[in-house]
Amino acid sequence: MFSFHRSQPLGRALIVAMSLAGFRATAAEPAPAPASAATTPRPLSLGDRLDPAVDYRYDPLNEKLTPIARKDLKPGHVYLRSSAARGAHVWSHVDAGGQFRYELGPGSSFPVRLFDPVADQETRRKALETRAPELARRLAVQGARPSLRLGADGRWSLDPASNEGRIFDLATGQRFEWHMGEAVPVVNTAGNTWIWSGGRYRSPVAGYGGAEPVAVDCCW
Fold first, then answer.
1. Cβ neighbours of residue 197 under 8 Å, at least 6 residues apart?
2. If pLDDT is split at 50, 70 and 90, which confidence band does 13 have?
3. According to DSSP H, which parts of the chain are helical?
């Protein structure tokens, strides 16, 4: 669950620049059909008050949220869904069966294309070349597509590393990384159980059972 606030100009510039270039969990929650999606088409900013009966598509280009109906959800894409259990909206993604999976927590990362962007790829590419030429050149050389990473404040920003998808599930404390289309668990000495503390992931135990958690510097 996240409370949104207006981003600072620099953070907003990173989000805009990054968005312009062009899964198996322990629990699933059915994607509810928004009650007022058909009657509330206007986009909202992240700082606006959200309708608890509505799920939203996120446009990284301008940090706008647009109500989306269940029939329009795309498998594998990331949306902001209403969670009855949380009493708030949480970031999530839709599986092949049309169900939301995971409550995305800090450090989760997805390719920009999985945010169901409205702007076509050529428009995003040209805008990126204008606003972030160095990034555009790097991506062109590497043949990579940009990704966004979720911060502790619930906002998405540039992920320095392109990837297929990375998950930290707030509901279970588990982490997964996608490799060749498959979700692979990320484990430590305690198994696939993690906590988020001090801006990084930590094992809930130190070594083989110590009382204090240890930082995991290599596992962002």
1. 213
2. very low
3. 9-18, 121-131, 133-142
